[in-house]
Design goal:
two-stranded antiparallel sheet; six-stranded mixed β-sheet; alpha/beta; about 15% strand; binds zinc ion; Aminopeptidase
């Protein structure tokens, strides 16, 4: 469609992250748009990683996972498509994880006074024995409203969510498959969360991850990586500002690593928008989480968010980055000083 998005209309636009501890220098707005001389990569980082030699992440299989989810139609909570797709994802994840379980939540949806049944689908690899544990997450629901359409009738229709939903989940399932026979240096939890995009407003979004953040596994993850809207053609994932606030060290090392493994075109070392997304409840709970998102997507929350706007190459680049990041030895650890609860306001 190519419509111009007005930033003040974006529901993700965030003005309200307030670290309890004054570890952040400067304010977020001042950081956005910097060319980031400050993120110049220290030489030492480039030596503490080793690239894996295995076949690795298969972009074509990931692409099939994206198509399959879209074949169910919009995965809106309370619909058969949602429930059927959830069963499919649980079955797929169980093939490659040590264990899979559901985290069930209900929500009284004020939009229609219906009580919705939702499930976070959670699988783990090497969780018990690991010294470092991370959570990888993506939302598997899709939005009930194409709220960025201009036609009022279309605005009430659900979106397919090829990029906004299916892309991140597709990468995580293929990642679980690619890693399941590897000797993992860390424990990995795959969190396919529900109710991220319900709405219509922020007070009824991020529902699944909010529940997870209040009911964390024991032991809990040290840090997180969120995938959302990473399937669009020619994907570019700049630095998201709230992620940077949560752990500057993590962001620096992650983008340095992307450069080291030749993926700096996909992960450009510059700031993008600040985004309200599933990472915020985790950051609030003391789990620094990076939001990998390409918000430069004109089909966001429209009926045009369909597979033809996405590509296997994009899934492949993002998946390969995570595959190599997870297998690096020694594993990355977030500084203790960043693992602190923070007060975050969402939707203001
Ligand atoms: Zn969305």
């Amino acid at each position: 469609m190519g419509q111009i998005r007005h930033r003040q209309n974006l529901r993700h636009r965030n003005r309200g992250i307030h670290p309890q501890r004054q570890t952040i220098r400067g304010n977020i707005a001042a950081l956005v748009g910097l060319s980031l001389a400050l993120l110049t990569i220290p030489a030492a980082i480039a030596q503490d990683t080793s690239a894996p030699t295995a076949a690795g992440f298969d972009k074509d299989t990931a692409w099939q996972y994206l198509l399959k989810q879209c074949d169910y139609g919009p995965r809106v909570p309370g619909t058969k498509a949602h429930d059927d797709c959830g069963k499919y994802l649980q079955t797929e994840l169980a093939k490659y994880c040590d264990e899979v379980h559901l985290q069930h939540l209900t929500h009284l949806w004020t939009y229609n006074n219906q009580t919705l049944q939702m499930d976070n689908i959670i699988g783990t690899q090497n969780w018990k024995d690991a010294k470092v544990r991370i959570v990888l997450l993506a939302h598997w629901d899709s939005r009930p409203f194409a709220s960025q359409e201009t036609d009022p009738i279309k605005q009430k229709m659900p979106i397919l969510g090829a990029d906004d939903g299916a892309s991140g989940v597709a990468v995580l399932i293929e990642l679980a498959k690619a890693l399941h026979d590897q000797k993992l240096p860390i424990g990995v939890e795959y969190l396919l969360d529900d109710g991220e995009d319900l709405g219509p407003n922020m007070d009824q979004m991020l529902l699944g991850v909010d529940y997870y953040a209040k009911n964390l596994p024991d032991p809990k993850p040290q840090y997180g990586i969120l995938l959302d809207m990473i399937g669009n053609k020619g994907v570019r994932v700049p630095i998201e500002s709230n992620s940077y606030v949560a752990s500057e060290d993590f962001i620096r090392k992650f983008y340095a690593f992307a450069q080291k493994v030749g993926l700096e075109a996909t992960f450009p070392n510059k700031f993008g928008d600040d985004i309200e997304d599933d990472h915020l409840p985790l950051i609030a709970a003391g789990i620094p989480t990076i939001d990998l998102i390409d918000f430069n997507y004109p089909y966001w929350h429209t009926l045009q968010d369909t597979p033809d706007k996405c590509s296997a190459d994009s899934l492949g680049n993002v998946g390969t980055m995570l595959y190599k990041w997870i297998l690096q030895t020694p594993p990355y650890e977030v500084p203790m000083s960043d693992r602190v609860p923070r007060t975050i306001s969402i939707g203001n």
